[in-house]
Amino acid sequence: MAKIIIIDDEKSIRAALRDILEYEGYDVEEAKDGEEGLDMILRSNYDVALCDIKMPKIDGLELLLKVGEAGKGTQFVMVSAFGNVENAVEATKRGAFDFITKPPDLNRLLVTVRNALERSKMAQETKTLRKRIYKLNEIVGDSAPIRKVKETINRVAATEARVLVTGPNGSGKEMVAKQIHEKGNRANMPLVEVNCAAIPSELIESELFGHEKGAFTGAMAKRVGKFEQADGGTLFLDEIGDMSLSAQAKVLRALQENKITRVGGDKEIRVNVRVIAATNKDLRREIAEGNFREDLFHRLSVIVIHVPALAERKEDIGLLADKFLQDIASEYGAPVKELSPDAIRQLESLPWTGNVRELRNVIERLVIMCGDTITGEDVALYA
């Protein structure tokens, strides 16, 4: 049942609103002023608050601010006398869902409450989904190299520093980029990924910067590039060591000036993007061989995070395997299988040239092919 709190210093208004809402089947509580309302909201969870603007002790605008700072997801509908409509409009600018005037129109009140409840439900679903995604992108391990990776992520996530993530294929570089984004100030904005190795060199500039209609054969319509799509958020340039030199020059300019120009266009478009890059190559060697721009390297590598190969942190294999067993069981809707101690020892003895990605594939194969308890013999047969 939806839970609503009415915060108003006029007892008659509280009683009238309560009668209407309880008749509609809502669970309703009251607070006689902003101070009491704040205390109740902090101690409990309410889907919607009907809140007066002018109240003693703490007024509606201040209450709205304090509840927002506390991270509560309560949707505020401001209840305002005609003379306070400007304040109510100001409240919506500060995050209130809507406002209604006194005395409230019954139909308007009920429609507004229903819409606010729908917003509250969507906010809760988004919060739950974000937690689920965060768990999926969790970096698992307690080895010294992984602890260092986690510590660095925690230090740099809240900054705007550009990050270069290095490490072999399958080691989890993409996971690091996602963790930085999700822990940073841009978490509510888009994370746009580009695999530079998967895009032909002649198309990479169009992919990154977009193009105008008619810019080249086949450009039948205007296209918005990844930089514009990521505006306000994070752009993850995976395998940047495979990017063409001409595209590197344009990326460098975009990072220097925070502006891009679409292919075939002459209009400069301002963008606000945090760039995280990743590569499995030794970029200093690529620079020496003339394949990568040194000035771009220095722009990208304000912070460098090296993700170790799985062979360098074999003590994490048991933890990773347990997580994959749980993830795969969830995907299949099946009970979680177990690894025997000899199975873990057998897994730790393997070379893992494909790193964490290979381990995940092996665990999925074992789940499919083996019984409830996976043994060392199973690993020897199917790994």
Automatic annotation (TrEMBL):
GO MF, any single term: ATP binding
Protein's name according to its UniProt entry: Response regulator
Keyword ATP-binding: yes
Modified residues (4-aspartylphosphate): D52
Gene3D superfamilies, alphabetized: 1.10.8.60, 3.40.50.2300, P-loop containing nucleotide triphosphate hydrolases
Species the sequence originates in: Rudanella paleaurantiibacter
UniProt-listed GO biological process terms: phosphorelay signal transduction system; regulation of DNA-templated transcription
Chain ranges of the Sigma-54 factor interaction domain: 139-368
Location of the Response regulatory domain: 3-117
